[in-house]
Structure formats: structure tokens, C-alpha cells
Design goal:
globular, 22 helices, mainly alpha, 475 residues, 2 domains
Length: 475
């Protein structure tokens, strides 16, 4: 028995994919143990403010029966979608209701999950191409992709969301499995509860599954039922709960339930992103009680300038949401605030900017956001050597995005509009356009991690393009 196991172990470990997975795991462990503290600038590499928000929602559900960050706030019930809160909640219960241990264990579990993702993206590529070399190239790129590695130990929803997306893409290709459509839709629907941007790929996964059976009514009916069940079981309880329990139609989340994202701060972001691509330096100037710079390149009338000055003044002195941010210049406001006045002024000015400067709002600013999203050069804070080195990887990210787009478009043309590549490209375009040009809450607030799922899918066509030439033939 022992000799058989040893023989099997040697056979498995001799495979190249096992070696890639092993060194990918090693890269994640090395980052976590030796570089994560310097990168995050904190001793607790498993926890950040958002980690606590997800945890608190589950804690309030467990002890008070209310999934909310603040059961006294009418919008506290909607600040977080439940996926990652329940993910952390499982570890919370297993770790004897100790959050310190929970974050530590969940962080290392995410490292294990992302190591599994290396093998999963290998399998996805292989199912597409039946090409070992292409699959190994894709797995290798993912194994050492720095923009997923840095999120491994920190208790944020990025890693589980990527895992669920890859699982969905894997299952949708396993057409020989009886319930592949159900499993694929279940995975991506659950993933939406971790990261709502996965909503944008949902219709393309449905199209990929149903396309070969559009003329087969019986097969199409069975697949449709499976997908409906997967979506209904894993996603629909969230909007149904919001409507039934709270009489609110909400598909994703509402950040206004956070004390520091009250209507004054939210209206400020709406306004500032209507005139410029960054919310700095104005945001920091407000909370530090400094002279606030007027946005450059936008002409305000005298009356609008006076209104904007008043909004900045009120934000500094009696904006309750602003007062809850770390570094606020005086004691946080507890009681009467002027949030309504701040919100009214910023909203009024935003409407004027949209109407008077439509080219700036709809073209110039989205292009600036897109430039920042694709061609970002460095991290905001580069005080430590690790942060400076990490900043250099943004050039690598830009290179992979441009290469991935080229390979995707090339393969779409070569493979007669292969649906997988059309899906990857469409998801990329929709996600980037939505975040760079959208008008919803906190859209135009460019954080690179928001683009991570779309960026990762571009790695697959890179592997296929540089794999065996036999794949690069028309079908």
C-alpha cells in the first residue's frame, strides 16, 4: 500500500502543472510571511476596515437576528452583500467566535483557495483547447500574477469571488455532466453576492450554455430550468429579503449605511466625479480643515462658485459623514448636522455640470478614468521599498491587459467568434465602461481590484495564443 502511494505521489508531482501549483503556493506564502506587512503598512495583514464591516454584519445577524452593520441605522441593512459576511461567519463559528483567529484562519484558507485557482484556470484553458502547453502557460502566468497574490491573506472578497467565477467557467464547459448548467449558474450567482460586478458576465455565461441548444426545445427547457434554479437559490434571496423585510428594491448594496458614507460624503463624490477624475486633494482638504482647491479646468459662474465654497465650508464644519473619517480635524459630529444642505448643494452643482459640460462629463472624464484603470503607474503610498517595488508591477499589468486584448480579438476572428472569447472581451468592456463612465454610487472611483475578474480572464487567451500553433487554425 505504501509503495503504491509513493508511486502515485511521484507520478503526480512529476507533472508540470503540479510544479507550477507548488511554486505558486510558495510565492503566496513568501509574500504573506515576509512582504505583506510592509505592503499593507500594518502589523495585522489579515484585517482591514472593510474586513470588519463584513464581520460586523454577520455578528449582528448571529446575535440580534439582523444582517446589518448598524441595526439602529435604516440603511445599515444594505451596506454589504451577504456572500463574504457568511464566508467569514463560517470561520467565526469554527474558531470559537474569536474574530482575531477567524481573520487569520480565513486568510490562510484564501491562500489555499487561490492556489486551487491556479489548477482551475489550467483546467479551463485545457477544456477550451485540449492543449497542454497553452494550459500550462496560462497557469504559470496566474500563479505569479501579483495583483491576485497581494489580496490572498487580507480578508477581502476578491479571492473567493475569483474562485467562484472560475468554478462557474469550468462547470459551463462540462457539458457531459448532467447538472453542469445548474452548477455553473449557482457558482456565478453566489459570486455576485461577493462581488456585484460579476453580474455583468452572467448573461454571457447563460448564452454560452444555451447557444448549442437553441433549436432543441427540450434541452433548452431543461437547461433553462437548471439555470433558473441556480440563480434563484443562491442569489434571489438577497433582493427578496430587501423587498419583503425592508420594502426596498435593491439588487446590490447601499453604502450610505456606513457612518462615514453618509449623504454628505456620497453627494460630494457624485459631484467631484462630475468635474474631475480624482476626489483628491479636495477630500483630504475638507477633513483636515484646509483651504479647498477648486476643481481645475471647469468654469464655474460666480453664483456656482459661491455655492461650491459654501458646500466645502459646511462639509468641513458640520458634515457628519466627513467627521467620521480618520484624521478629521475635530471631534466627530454626534447630533444635528447639515448633511441635507451639503447634499442639496452638491447635487445641484452636479446636475449643472452634467448639463453645461456634457463633453467633459461623458467623454473627457471617462477617458481619464480609463487611462488610470489600464495605465496606472504606481500605488498612492510609496514610502516603503516594498511599495515602490510593487508599483513597478503596474507596468506588467498594463502589458498583460494590452496583450490579452490583442490575443482575445485575434482569437475571436480566427475562431469564428468563439463564444468564450466574446464573453471575456464583452465582460472586460462592460466592466471597464461601467466603472469608468457609470453614474451609480461610487462608480468612477477607480480601484484596480474592482477590475480583477475581467483582467484575469484575459490571461487565458494569452496562454492559448502562445501555446501550440495547432490551436491557431480556423475552425
Amino acid at each position: 500500500m505504501g509503495l503504491k502511494f509513493l508511486s502515485y505521489f511521484r507520478k503526480v508531482t512529476s507533472k508540470k502543472i503540479f510544479q507550477i501549483v507548488f511554486f505558486g503556493l510558495l510565492a503566496r506564502v513568501v509574500f504573506t510571511l515576509f512582504f505583506a506587512k510592509a505592503y499593507y503598512g500594518t502589523d495585522n495583514i489579515y484585517y482591514n476596515y472593510d474586513s470588519g464591516a463584513w464581520a460586523l454584519c454577520f455578528q449582528n445577524l448571529y446575535y440580534y437576528g439582523q444582517f446589518s452593520i448598524d441595526i439602529t441605522h435604516p440603511l445599515g441593512y444594505f451596506v454589504r452583500m451577504p456572500g463574504y459576511s457568511f464566508f467569514l461567519g463560517v470561520f467565526y463559528l469554527l474558531c470559537n467566535k474569536d474574530w482575531i483567529t477567524t481573520f487569520f484562519v480565513a486568510g490562510w484558507f484564501q491562500i489555499a483557495l487561490d492556489t486551487l485557482n491556479i489548477y482551475m484556470i489550467y483546467r479551463i484553458t485545457y477544456l477550451l483547447s485540449k492543449n497542454e502547453k497553452s494550459s500550462l502557460i496560462t497557469a504559470f502566468i496566474y500563479a505569479f500574477y501579483p495583483f491576485i497574490i497581494v489580496w490572498n491573506p487580507l480578508c477581502y472578497s476578491e479571492v473567493p469571488a475569483v474562485t467562484l467565477l472560475l468554478l462557474s467557467l469550468f462547470m459551463m464547459q462540462k457539458r457531459e455532466k448532467k447538472y453542469y448548467a445548474f452548477l455553473s449558474l449557482s457558482s456565478v450567482s453566489l459570486g455576485i453576492l461577493f462581488r456585484p460586478q460579476l453580474f455583468l458576465i452572467l448573461p454571457f455565461i447563460i448564452l454560452y450554455i444555451t447557444w448549442p441548444y437553441l433549436r432543441n426545445k427540450r434541452a433548452l427547457s431543461i437547461l433553462s430550468l437548471q439555470m433558473l434554479l441556480g440563480f434563484g437559490i443562491f442569489y434571489m434571496p438577497w433582493p427578496m429579503r430587501n423587498y419583503v423585510n425592508h420594502n426596498k428594491i435593491l439588487l446590490t448594496h447601499d453604502l450610505r449605511g456606513f457612518a462615514n458614507w453618509d449623504k454628505d460624503v456620497m453627494s460630494f463624490t457624485y459631484f467631484i466625479y462630475s468635474v474631475q477624475a480624482e476626489w483628491e486633494p479636495q477630500f483630504s482638504q475638507i477633513i483636515k480643515n484646509q483651504k479647498v482647491d477648486f476643481p481645475k479646468g471647469v468654469n464655474f459662474s460666480t453664483s456656482d462658485s459661491l455655492l461650491l465654497s459654501r458646500a466645502f465650508y459646511l462639509s468641513k464644519n458640520c458634515g457628519k459623514g466627513f467627521s467620521m473619517w480618520r484624521g478629521y480635524w475635530k471631534t466627530p459630529i454626534d447630533g444635528i448636522s447639515c448633511n441635507d444642505s451639503i447634499s442639496q448643494i452638491f447635487s445641484q452643482l452636479r446636475e449643472k455640470q452634467m448639463n453645461q459640460n456634457p463633453i467633459n462629463f461623458w467623454i473627457n472624464l471617462p477617458l481619464k478614468n480609463l487611462k488610470k484603470a489600464i495605465f496606472k503607474e504606481k500605488l498612492y503610498d510609496t514610502n516603503s521599498m516594498v511599495r515602490k517595488i510593487a508599483s513597478s508591477f503596474f507596468y506588467y499589468r498594463t502589458f498583460l491587459i494590452l496583450l490579452g486584448l490583442f490575443c482575445t480579438i485575434y482569437l475571436i476572428r480566427l475562431q469564428n467568434f468563439n463564444l468564450f472569447f466574446v464573453m471575456s472581451l464583452s465582460f472586460f468592456v462592460l466592466l471597464y465602461v461601467s466603472l469608468c463612465a457609470g453614474t451609480g454610487p461610487l462608480m468612477r472611483n477607480i480601484e484596480i481590484r474592482y477590475f480583477l475578474p475581467a483582467d484575469i480572464l484575459l490571461l487565458i487567451p494569452i496562454g492559448l495564443f502562445f501555446g501550440e500553433k495547432s490551436f491557431l487554425t480556423k475552425k
